[in-house]
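Duplicate of earlier report; TetR/AcrR family transcriptional regulator input re-posted below.
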Amino acid sequence: MSTEQHEPEQRQKGRPSVEEAARIDRLILSAARNILVAHGESASLNAVAKAAGLSRKTVYARYASKEALFLAAARSALVDTNPITFPPAATLEDRLYNYLVEVFRLISSDAALSFQRALVTNAHLLPQLRDAIREASANMIFQPLQDMLAEAFRNGELDAEDPQLVARIVFDTVVGQMTTQGHEAPGRGDPAILRAYAGLLARMVCRGLCPRAAGLMT
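Output:
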């Protein structure tokens, strides 16, 4: 345990400074996010306090219940999401494939599955997290897809009147793949299966919506 983690316990008594209070909050949320990913629904306030190097009193003073801390940690994790990145490619089909492989890798990671399990276990709190989940999904997954398809449309690579609708259909398919399979479903997270699914979806979109040479049109 680092000296910095224990410092809050060693400070002089009295109300902490604004900087100290902010630092304690960061320690708690960082520990809570790590515990949430590692232990999911079995995470406890005591475990968070120990991981943060703080007393239970300090944690309980800020979060009266496990649910309150769960909400704060979940919101913090969702706010910190970044748009996914994926390798460039010469064709739209290959770019879409690379995008989908990265998305499926992300949502099948141990961290993502632990977070999903924690959400399912605390399903009664989902209404309070719905907006944060929607914004995180849009920022991390939907926006890169929408930007890619919009650029492909401008470049004449995508034959669709509404690229945003295509992006929405692909996004909904990805979300469906993520939510309809059980966490322990056979093959979930298997790179070969994920690549095959990504390839199939990329072909369905591009070979159905990409312009074809006149001689190939039926």
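Residues 93 and 202 are 6 Å apart (CA to CA).

Merging into the original ticket.
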